[in-house]
Amino acid sequence: MGCRFLVTGGAGFIGSAVVRHLIDNSAHEVAVLDKLTYAGNLDNLACVRWNERYRFAQADICNARDVRNIVESFRPDVLMHLAAESHVDRSIDGPGEFIQTNVVGTFTLLQAALSFWRTLKGEERERFRFHHVSTDEVFGSLGAEGLFTEETPYSPNSPYSASKASSDHFVRAWYHTYGLPVVLSNCSNNYGPYHFPEKLIPLVTLNALEGKPVPVYGDGSNVRDWLYVEDHARALQLIAERGVIGESYNVGGHNERANIDVAQKICALVDEFAPDPQGSRERLITFVGDRPGHDLRYAIDASKIERELGWRPQETFETGLRKTVAWFLENRAWWQRIRSGVYRGERLGVVA
User: Is domain 4-257+291-339 annotated with CATH 3.40.50.720?
Assistant: First the structure.
C-alpha cells in the first residue's frame, strides 16, 4: 500500500533523485514543494511529470500560509525536508539567505507539520514522519584518521554548515519538546546525474569538456566521502519508512577521495569519452586559492544504517563516476540551459 510523501526541495539535485526513485520503485504518491530558485529545475522531474502519483507546488518554505495550505491539502504521511541553500561558497558570499532558508524555513515546516500531526488520529497519526535531511558538514573537520558517527559532536565551520546544524537542533527540539515524530539523516557529498554545475564533479566535468581551466582548491588534498545520489535516494526511503522515531542515520558511500584525485579521474574519463586532439585534459587542472575555512576531511561511518536498515551503497566511486560523466556528456541540453543563464562556472566564495 502506498503512502503520501511531501518532498521539499524536490526539484533540486537530491530531492529530484528521491522523487524519481519513489515514483519508479514504489506505489507512493509524491508531492513536490519547491521555490524553484537557481538550483531548482523542473527539467530534473521531466520523466515523472505526467505520472498520476506525482504533483508539484511552487512555494517558499518560509511562507507559513502556503506551507500550511499545502500540508493540509496533501495530507502527507511523510514530510521529507530537503529544501536548503547548500553550497558552501555561496554561504560565504551571502550567509543571510542560508539562515533564512535553512533555519527559518525549517522552523516554518516544523510548525506546519506539528499543527497537522496534532489533528491526526489512529493509524494516520502513527504513520506520520518528519524526515529532516542534513549533511556531514555539521560535524566539522576530521584529521587524517577517524569517521563521523551519529554521536559525533557538532562543530560547523562555514555559514552553510552552521545553518544546517541549527536546523538539525530545531528538529530534535520539536521531537523532545512537542513529541513530533521525526527522523534525521546526515549524508556525505552526493554526486550523480542532474548535479548543479557549481559543485566539484560537474564543474570539473564540464570545464574539462569545454577546454576551460579545471579549478582545484589549495593543493587538492582536501578529502571527501562521495555518495552516488541514487544510492542516497534508496537510503532516504528506507529511513522514512523504517527509521526509529527520534533517531539519526549517517549515510556515506565508503568512497574517500582527495579532490585532486577526483579531478584527475574525471579528466581521464572525459578523455576516454571525448578525446581531445590537444592531449590529456589533466593539463587543464589549475590550483586556485583555497576556500576560507576549508575543512580538511569528511568521512562517514554508515554502519548504523547498514546494520539496522540493511542499506549499502550499490555504486563504487569508479562505477558511479563513470555513470555521472557519461550522463553529463549525453545530456548537454540540460546543463547548457543552466550555463547560458543562471550559472556560468564563475568562482564563488572569495572573501575580500
Answer: yes
